[in-house]
Design a protein that fits this description.
By secondary structure, the protein is of the alpha/beta class. Helix content is 42%, strand content 19%. The radius of gyration is 16 Å and the shape is globular.
């Protein structure tokens, strides 16, 4: 059973969007997927509740209540949607549950500064320092050919950890969420650009580089 943790203590950086779309991607491949929501707002759990009956199944786990106890034993992958404002021991406990950690970062000065502080904090977590879990960053909600994206891109390229994808700011994520779907489940003519943006991330997740 693989555990992929999506976390950044700054609210509004798109953790739930990435977590739900990761769950959708795995489900469309035939994996048994559990989506564990540690955020009391429950955005990922709400999304599972909107999911059509004929869509590939995903089990929603309200982890903000009981942790990972309700994760089915037959799950192939568990996507963990971390809460905002997690720090210290809470970060250590969340990382302890994962083999892969993804940090989404938005293209703004405030978000880059917050990410720099958080990544430094993650570097002190023993499991990551010992390479028992792999860490990567994702540029999220980007608009290409803008100064803000250029600044974020330059910052992320300077990090000593993998910078694996740039995900665009698109209404497809809103459309998909409202229907309990991921962008991978939207028609090709609507979502092909988003599929291309996700491919570097999904290729990395499929590679040995993303696992301890």
């Amino acid at each position: 059973m693989r555990h992929i943790l999506v976390m950044n203590p700054k609210g509004g950086c798109g953790k739930s969007t990435i977590a739900t779309n990761l769950a959708s991607w795995h489900a469309t491949r035939g994996d048994h997927v559990a989506l564990a929501d540690f955020d009391p707002q429950g955005s990922s759990i709400d999304w599972v509740g909107l999911r059509p009956l004929d869509a590939p199944p995903i089990v929603g786990v309200p982890a903000f209540e009981d942790g990972l106890r309700a994760v089915p034993r037959n799950a192939d992958v568990v996507i963990i949607d971390a809460p905002a404002r997690a720090h210290g021991r809470e970060i250590t406990e969340l990382v302890r549950r994962a083999e892969t950690v993804l940090v989404p970062v938005l293209p703004s000065t405030i978000d880059m500064r917050a990410a720099a502080s958080f990544i430094n904090e993650l570097g002190e977590v023993g499991r990551l320092a010992r390479q028992q879990a792999k860490l990567a960053v994702v540029a999220n909600r980007i608009k290409e050919n803008t100064l803000s994206f250029d600044e974020l891109d330059a910052y992320l390229r300077k990090l000593s950890i993998p910078y694996v994808a740039t995900l665009r700011d698109a209404q497809n994520y809103v459309r998909a969420y409202a229907r309990g779907l991921g962008v991978f489940e939207l028609p090709h003519y609507l979502a092909w650009q988003d599929w291309e943006h996700w491919k570097p991330l999904t290729d990395w997740l499929d590679s040995p580089a993303s696992r301890p």
